[in-house]
Amino acid sequence: MSPEAPPAALRLRIDSEALADNWRALDRWSGAARAGAAVKANAYGVGAEVSVPVLRKAGCRDFFVAHWGEAAKLLHLIPPQSISVLHGPLTATDAAWGKAMALRPVINSLGQARLWHEAGGGLCDLMVDTGINRLGLPLSDLADPAIARLDIDILMSHLACADEDSPLNATQLARWQDARRSIRHRRASLANSAGIALGTDYHGDLTRPGLSLYGGVPHPQLAGHIRQVAYPQAAVMQIRQLNPGDSVGYNAIFVANRPMRVAVIALGYADGYLRCWSGLGTMLGQGQRLPVLGRVSMDMTVIDVSAAPDLREGDWVEAAYDLPGAAKISGLSQYELLTLLGQRFAR
Ligand SMILES: *Cc1c(COP(=O)(O)O)cnc(C)c1O
User: Fold this and answer.
1) Region 295-317 average pLDDT
2) Catalytic residue positions?
């Protein structure tokens, strides 16, 4: 017997064409700038192993991860020089490892600049904080000699409200322009997915879309042009018949008022299909919309398959999961909907 386990009862279908098309669309909308790709958090849950080669083939050359460990998993797919590590070196060990692997840290503070110098330095990126007050070098530290000594490829900043019409956008833009004038660098970058929709001024030399690559629509201007990429699917494990008065699942919150045919599927909140979908979610199977009944459990969900009389145990159904629509129904953000998708999905 092979020690390999049988195939999973849930899988994430990835539309690679849609992923490539989304990148090309975002690259086009970035005008004279090139689009990179945020592939942190396992490419937002879609799967970095699958996504990175697709993005690279589409033409993407700049990839952003948060952690060093995420970069490590990409080293067999793309050259280290094309990977920026957003969190930067937190310790001397981080800096030494990054240097040894020829990866590019994003420097976020004077302390990180010193760690990088002490590890031998070399090409890096610099994140300046222009108003989000998250990770990034305060503008008041920009003139420090430790920064002047850096060999900076991408001078970047990050927008706090790109998905809104906020005065903070123009404020951050002006501060980023100031930083571009005051520090030596090769390329400048400001916009995430939503930032691309804010127009040419925000594009610089390189944009950094994440969410919209994977089907998210964070700005109305992108609506209609971004395609769904990730489709969660689960196997039907059991079909059962309910009589009027029978309840379904924990706490018996759904009670049948007619005879019903229901299916138990191998998808639960441990897979990222959270309890907020209880009584609200929809599965698609045999061309029908199949509503979620009662509470979502850890490893399974019950759906009404009365409309799909031919659906059998062992068949597959697909969660309705177009991100803008799913966010409205579930109350989760489009980012959460993607990054929640768990380890048990075959990707
Ligand atoms: C995650 C991230 C992005 C991508 O943002 P989206 O809103 O997903 O497009 C870009 N830049 C930085 C610094 C990030 O952390």
Assistant:
1) 98
2) 40, 250
